[in-house]
């Protein structure tokens, strides 16, 4: 049986749609993930130096988007080697047993011009919680730029065990800030 033009057109359109579904490539030089918290009531912001973000996003169909971010917990940089070693220990991130923290989206919905409402599962130190947060998205220098903040409670993820459960030294509230620039 000989394929018809309509069949060939449909097949080519399907191939084109699949080609457009390729995840965006993260531009790590223009991307960042950090945590903001208070230590002895003084705001501190420190960055994760290694992470991987996989985003499948089409501005014409944001409801079909998906995202996954994996963060190397041992890459948390507080600016001093001793602090960095301490935060990787069992009481904090326990990076030896839990080398990655991750976020996996379950829903991304339009929330106005340049805004998205994101829901998903955040896993830190083996504990998983459902989270939701607003996200802004804009086009900048040919890349989609996704920016947002996710407030969490560190103790809900057992970050700060033993004597570090005392929130008078390090507050329970932490804001994860991120900027991911990605394109084709």
From TrEMBL:
Keywords of this entry: Signal
InterPro entries, per database record: Lipid/polyisoprenoid-bd_YceI (IPR007372), TTHA0802/YceI-like_sf (IPR036761)
Ranges of residues in domain Lipid/polyisoprenoid-binding YceI-like: 23-183
A Pfam family of this chain: YceI
Signal peptide: 1-21
Coiled coil regions, renumbered to chain: none
PANTHER family xrefs: PROTEIN YCEI
Protein name as annotated: YceI family protein
